[in-house]
């Protein structure tokens, strides 16, 4: 193809090129994307990932989720198309989290965006990258501005010399969290792989055992958790299929070939659609604590057509060990839970089973049928479950509940420290530990016990630093409270008023 059919609307492209993005306003960017021919994409994103109370991401750029999934896959190249500042932030974050892989980038300016040359640049980059000796797949991700400008990734070739080309739109004004952005790419890859498998023979998955019945876990889990879950399933004659998001292209075929898909993280809407299209039953919740594990094994057994007596055998193998681990390390504390990983309800269940009082759990992820059992279980025990929780709701709940420990996102933990409440980062501390089976039961109690002990120390710190770092007392090395230069604030106020008046008289 030599000449690009210019589907982008020039005025829309020009307007988004001039300083929109995270702060450009969701409605404006959504309207621009629709005017530029992306209505179907925006409708699909809105259906899969319903928006929450906040109209912009309150965590990192959502596209990080897709980028991370691409970067973690073997023989997969990932290319970003977006504003340089967004790409800088995403690349930095990827390497901060140890990507050790090249992030491709197709830059643009107002001219290449408006004329459609950006699409040609993307197409050239994809052709230059898609070498079958290096890659199985090339992923190209449209960030906010190219999506709002209608850069038509669907016009890229579907494959080049056998290398699959996957183009996705992951705008911050259409995908609310980075968790759901993982699903955008995972779902697109599963769809591609399912179509391949349905049209003819595909490469044999590396560790495939003929005739083995498997369960495909959906969600990025702590590395030891799948092993523990595999041991729980073994008495039922079930093994684990490769996880979603996958680590290698041919793993996608093995995952789709499962007996049952387990939506342990409940927000993978597009991926689940592909498992269902492949005729696989899907089970929600996860094997946390005694009751969670018992219910989950029963659901898996039912979906896989395993006789009750065999399921009971599997339960008898694992439940006493979980019960023992919980009894050995009971949690006596009030804990609030907030996060954007998608496992918040499972963590809250485990804490609750271990004896903690959990008045509030907030998740940035949406309500789906796959966490319904967890929601009901928690609410029956007096926990308030808040889907699509905003930071403001999380903070208000923490202030109200005055917990012994708050698990939460970075800004929530910062707020907790200011209030003298012990707090732990959900992503770095809770998600970096096992959650399932006896290992999960033991590890959660250990961190809660260690952190709640610090409450008295926190109170002392708060009183020691009282007033330091707040606006009028900010700074280091003052013996007394700093004094404003006389008349300074008054002069600044007058200057601002004069500037506003001058702008008003010029008009727009
Ligand atoms: S791509 Fe990400 S960082 Fe860039 S404007 Fe969109 S949401 Fe913000």
TrEMBL record:
UniProt xrefs under Gene3D superfamilies: Nitrogenase molybdenum iron protein domain (3.40.50.1980)
Chain segments carrying region Disordered: 475-508
Pathway: Porphyrin-containing compound metabolism; bacteriochlorophyll biosynthesis
Pfam short name (any one): Oxidored_nitro
Name the UniProt record assigns to this protein: Chlorophyllide a reductase subunit Y
GO cellular component, one term: membrane
Molecular-function GO term, any one: oxidoreductase activity, acting on iron-sulfur proteins as donors, NAD or NADP as acceptor
Keywords for this protein: Bacteriochlorophyll biosynthesis, Chlorophyll biosynthesis, Oxidoreductase, Photosynthesis
Enzymatic class: oxidoreductase
Gene source species: Falsiroseomonas algicola
Bias (Basic and acidic residues): 478-490
An example Gene Ontology biological process: bacteriochlorophyll biosynthetic process
EC code(s) of this entry: 1.3.7.15
Residue ranges annotated for the Nitrogenase/oxidoreductase component domain, each copy included: 61-448
